[in-house]
Amino acid sequence: MSFKGAHFPKEVILYAVFFYLRYGMSYRDLEEIMAERGVKLDHATLNRWVSRYVGLVADASRYKKRPADRSWCMDETYVKVKGEWVYLYRAIDKHGKTLDFMLSKRRNKAAATKFFARALGANGLPRKIVIDKSGANTAGIKAINKMLKGFGCPVPIEMVRRKYLNNIIEQDHRFIKRRIRPMLGFKSFDSAASALAGIELVNMIRKGQFTPGLRPFQQFAQLAGQTDLQFN
């Protein structure tokens, strides 16, 4: 990741972005915290940092997390952007480890199929996927199984449609919901996608999906390709 053109040291940028994503605060709250540490910047700058850097770190992390179980749970939750509801698709394994996520303007077969294909690309082939009784998600898994059959995969992904079995991911949604509440809504789809990707990433760090033993910020900086920072 390049910090060329930034007017602040990269450690300041990464610290500010990490703490914004990890803890329940607004940009103005973080502006005050940074000022207490002798760093004067405004909330608009913090917003730009999140939009510019977070998506890059999240994309780099998708293939670096530890292997997950082959039994998955998938569901979507609602997020408000510019006063309208959009859909955050999420998947975790049976142990609660995050597999993948995707923000979508639509909740239909095409969106579900795209999400499943994305999750398979980063995590390999699951043995089964637990979903609720959503028709769109059912159609998405069927579309993926049809594609897999075309590629010569002899065993389809087992689909389990039991809402009560999906309680584990319903509980996992709560961390995301709790974290976005202080943000007071998103102004654009792109900014929402970037911030949510970062929140999911720090949640995966919290779950120990990368390098257990290192402090959370150290892991975040490493995923950003910054191994030369001083962690005091």
Strands side by side in the biggest sheet: 3-2-1-4-5
User: What is the structural class?
Assistant: alpha/beta
Counted up, domains total 2
CATH architecture of the largest domain, by name, is 2-Layer Sandwich
- The helix fraction, in percent, is 40-55%
Strand percent estimate: 15-25%
The biggest sheet amounts to: 5 strands, mixed
Number of helices: 8
The radius of gyration is: 19 Å
According to CATH, the homologous superfamily of the largest domain is Ribonuclease H-like superfamily/Ribonuclease H
CA-to-CA gap between the ends?
Answer: 22 Å
Basic shape: globular
Give me the strand/helix succession: HHHEEEHEHEHHH
Give the overall average pLDDT. Answer: 90
CATH C-level name of the largest domain? Alpha Beta
Uncertain stretches of 5 or more adjacent residues: none
CATH topology of the largest domain: Nucleotidyltransferase, domain 5
Question: How many beta strands in the DSSP annotation?
Answer: 5
Tell me what the structure shows.
It holds the Pfam family DDE_Tnp_IS240. It comes from Ruegeria arenilitoris. Keywords: DNA recombination, DNA-binding, Transposition. This protein is of the alpha/beta class and 232 residues long. It has two domains: 10-64 and 189-223, no CATH class; 71-175, Nucleotidyltransferase, domain 5 (2-Layer Sandwich). Helices cover 49% and strands 16% of the residues. A five-stranded mixed β-sheet has the order 3-2-1-4-5, sandwiched between helices. The model has no long low-confidence stretch (mean pLDDT 90).
Compact summary:
This is Integrase core domain protein. Keywords: DNA recombination, DNA-binding, Transposition. 49% of the residues lie in helices and 16% in strands.
